[in-house]
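[Amino acid chain]
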Amino acid sequence: MELGRWLAMPQQVEAQVARWEQAFPALLRVDFLTQYTGHRCFALTIAAGVPEGNDGRPAAWFCVPHAHEPAGTAAIMDVIAQLLTGRDLAGQPAAFDIERARRQLILTFNPDANPGGRTWSPCVWWDGSKYTNDEFWQWMRGVDPTTGGMWQRVARWSLRETHPLRRGIVYEQLNEHEFVEPNRDPGSSLVRLFRQLDARYGYARSLHLHQTEFERSPHNCMINLPVLQPELPEPIQEANVRWGQSIIARWRELGADPVPEPRGFPYSRDEQTVRWFRACWGESQRKAPELVVEVQNNNPRTPPEQQLELERAAILVTIEQLLAC
């Protein structure tokens, strides 16, 4: 994988955003929240004329919640390059009609919801060559001082109450003491930024780009339906399933091994986790379709090139569907 095509570390993203902001002021609006660590959590909106609010065009939100899942960031930066310049980061012509997308859609990208966390990552990408999954999970969640294994998974924690031997890069630091997992706590930069921009543009679709390890699985990608899926209005339920099936079909065309159908919320039996997700995303899920993408991480079966390709495919399918509406 060429590093020039893989823009995922915070310093790379900030530098490229600055260049794009200067070169394409009529197409790109840059919003951000500055995290406690000093890093910028961006919302990059692309549209012809970049309206101050929704002007009748369908709007979509794309985000990468987790610092240990960089392929979604690399894919977002590649798609933005296509939208702004007409070429991807490898110099190839855009894979879709960028002029129509600029004219007809409002597209907002959050390439990295926790740049402060990703700064501490020991890898630009995770390909399974340097760390076992046990070691990877210790980087993700931290090291337990008692067991030496992976530390706990919580929505919010404080150094006043507990202290892992090493902090996990998944957690965003809110202040001197408090940390949150970005997609599970309303105080995170991700949730605050999404709500701010959703109030402005009224997103018709939201795509959350994730990665997981697929240990002992024949699959290397899947679609998760939202936590509220069984309760949603029937048209939104149906739209979620059809959209997910379209992404899965595209993955098959690319030679991937996806889980055959979109699956239900994976933590549905964990009442606390369900409450966390309801608090963060319940309102938006009731208003518009939303999906979660999972692409294999830290495994040589899915190298970085393919990780980027599969994440990018999910974004492009979403854009194509919005253009077809």
User: Anything to note?
Assistant: The mean pLDDT is 96. The first helix runs from residue 10 to 23.
